[in-house]
Amino acid sequence: MLAEKERAEWLRQKANWTRLSAMTMTHHARLGHTGGDLSSADILTVLYLGGILRIDPARPDWPQRDRFILSKGHCSGAFYSTLASRGFFPLERLQTYMDSLSMLNGHPDRNKLPGVEANTGPLGHGLPIAVGAALAARMRKENWRVFVLTGDGELQEGSNWEAAMTAQHYGLDNLIVIVDRNRIQQGDFTEKTIRMEPLAERWSAFGFAVEEIDGHDTAALLGRFDRLPFQPGKPSCLIAHTIKGKGVSFAENQPSWHHGVPNDKQLAAAAVELGAEVGW
Amino acid sequence: MVTSTETLRVPAPQLFDCRDAYIHALEEMAVADSRVCAVANDSLSSAKLKSFRERFPDRFVNVGIAEQNMVGVGAGLANGGMIPYVCGAACFLTGRAMEQVKVDLAYSKSNVKLCGMSPGMAYGQLGPTHHSIEDMAWTRVLPNLAVVVPADPVETAAAMYYSLMHEGPMYLRISRMPVPRVHGDNYEFKLGKAVRVRDGNDVTLIANGVLVARALDAAQALAAMGISARVLNMSTVKPLDREAILDAARNTCGIVTAEEAFAAGGLGGAVAEVLAQERPAPMRILGVPDVFAPTGTEEFLLGHFGLTAAGIERAAMELVKNEG
Questions:
Q1: N or C: lower Cβ tally within 10 Å for chain B?
Q2: What is the pTM assigned to this prediction?
Q3: Pairing label, strands B236-238, A175-181
Q4: Dihedral sign, CA of A185, A191, A192, A195?
Q5: Closest-CA residue in chain A for B39?
Q6: Which residue of A has its CA nearest to B109?
Q7: Coil, helix or strand for A98?
């Protein structure tokens, strides 16, 4: 029991490292998506460093690997930090975020960076691709699973619901959609922009087995990802309730931090609050 | 000298729906290669996929009327090691899912084959919503995406078999309008290579798809007037056969292009880009002008816009006369 607690705590610290790493990258590039990087960090960390994803950084193209697709491609700061942390490429490469000719584009490019499954950036692309990859596992009689992380505002794109219908029709229980429910989109709070609630009921009406979770509780996330699918014969949807800008007080719950860029002072303050040191 | 009575005795050429060649090839490939699968958007009969579904139920996905999802699903299947043929009416497959074609396929270099069915003005009477004459301009500017417009059933089948060996995304424009054969049984499709289907040194006619047979008819009519027209089947719009274009510019007095697409941005535009920069030559670009088509059958509309043997012949005559 204690071991599990320690594991969750280690992951929490790792996630804070990812947060600071992403903010440092954004600080360097003068561009980035701090709010979403921070809300998604625990989910990414648990998947990649918590032993959930069956992947091998030495063989990123291993055919039987689990697939993780970052549909909210703008959260590349947290994603790249996680991939580097997991060993897909050297940590030092994070220093080149959005530099001219860098492999670390503002949005992920699978042809440049190992570990990236799909080129994303425009919203509403990840879930259809994930559905295709889940169907491929079935056609090839393989048991890989497909994880896709979407934003909540992103679900305003209709293509998600097209894909949800396909996932449901084909009973893709090797597919799990994780919604980073931070309640803020680029311009404002989601509920002020276009109401997303009742979100759980919507997914469940589309045939998903839905659960909700505190998206920053690494122990809870670990426990939930350990037992998939939620229900045999159905695709799973985990609505992860998160705080946009989580872990950095001045960025929390502020729509302006969707793509806010920290200055030197703010970056230093964030490091203190997160109790982390980047080290690359 | 061919007299009119003799002409009447020539039997009408046999005409083919290229979709039959496409589906025959697709099913043969599915037998030979377990990675081949098909994705459809409900349009099973227009994409002729009913027998595919019966023969390979486990390798057939119908996403319903959802083209953006359909192209994304194709990208995901390719990520999982399958070779998906994503088939749907060309107008919706390209127009509705253009960003997925750009990002999920072209930019991602996904090994997905798009089969755009019934392109051009095949759905003539249904109106401009169902015409696919923008697709050439839209698709040919995308890096990594091969764009192929077969001329006849022989080339349709050959391009399909080729696509299985080609690593990367392709857009195949599969015609339903009955066309005669323009290629022999031994025809070998080569991506990016124009085929000289008729030799000639006065003027060059470059066409693809259903316009190739019409260009050949035009060349025959021109020959009767003592004008020797070269005919190139430029079935690959991307990557473009620049050498064939430059050779035509060097050795004939000008080039007429003809295609069942908007004259802006398609095959004609591609040829013009090469000529303007490397060897300016007189040109006529035949296609649909800057208007949405009126109501009519495909045959009527092609005639309406001068996309006929006579129209091509007329344009070629202008170039030859200007030269003289």
A1: N
A2: 0.95
A3: unpaired
A4: positive
A5: A132
A6: A111
A7: coil
Contacts of B37 in chain A (CB under 8 A): 139
* Domain spans in chain B, listed from the N-terminal domain onward: 18-174, 195-323
Contacts of B109 in chain A (CB under 8 A): 111
Closest partner CB to B82 (pick from A67, A130, A136): A136
Q: Is residue A280 part of a domain?
A: no
The partner residue sitting opposite A125, judged by closest CB among B66, B70, B103, is B103
**Contact check, Cβ <8 Å, A136/B109:** no
pLDDT, position B324: 66
CB contact under 8 A, A139 and B73: no
Q: List residues of chain A with CB under 8 Å from any CB of chain B.
A: 63, 67, 109-111, 117-122, 124-125, 127-140, 142, 144, 146, 158-159, 162-163, 165-166, 169-170
- The Cα–Cα gap between B270 and B240 comes to 8
DSSP string, B121-176: TTTGGG-GGG-B-SHHHHHHTSTT-EEE---SHHHHHHHHHHHHHS-S-EEEEE--
A170 chain-B contacts, CB cut-off 8 A: 61
Distances B1 to B47, B105, B271 between C-alpha atoms, Å: 44, 53, 35
Query: What pLDDT is stored for residue B5 in this prediction?
Result: 47
Answer whether A249's CB lies under 8 Å from A273's CB: yes
For tokens 């009689």, the residue is A141
Domain span at A237: 2-274
Rounded to whole angstroms, how far apart are CA atoms B293 and B276?
Answer: 29
Nearest chain A CA: its distance from B247 CA (Å): 36
Q: Are strands B283-288 and B255-262 parallel, antiparallel or unpaired?
A: parallel
CATH value at residue A178? 3.40.50.970
What is the number of CB-based contacts under 8 A between chain A and chain B? 117
Asked whether the beta carbons of B112 and B75 are under 8 A apart, the reply is yes
pLDDT reading at B170 higher than 80: yes
CA–CA separation, B23 and B34 (whole Å): 16
pLDDT at residue B9 above 90? no
Q: What is the ipTM of this complex?
A: 0.96
Are residues A131 and B71, on separate chains, in Cβ contact within 8 Å? no
- CA B70, CA A58: separation in Å to the nearest integer? 32
Classify strands B146-148 and B236-238 as parallel, antiparallel or unpaired: antiparallel
Q: How far apart are the first and last CA of chain B?
A: 25
For A162-197, what is each residue's pLDDT tens digit? 999 999 999 999 999 999 999 999 999 999 999 999
Query: At a CB cut-off of 8 Å and minimum separation 6, what does B6 contact?
Result: none
Q: Report CB contact under 8 Å: B108, A170.
A: no
Contacts of A144 in chain B (CB under 8 A): 80
Distance of CA B290 to CAs A197, B10, B39, B129, B312, Å? 45, 38, 33, 15, 19
Q: Which residues in chain B are closer than 8 Å to A110, comparing Cβ atoms?
A: 108
C-alpha dist (Å) from residue A156 to A126, A152, A194? 13, 8, 8
Measured CA to CA, the distance from residue B72 to residue B112 in angstroms comes to 10
CATH architecture of B18-174: 3-Layer(aba) Sandwich (3.40)
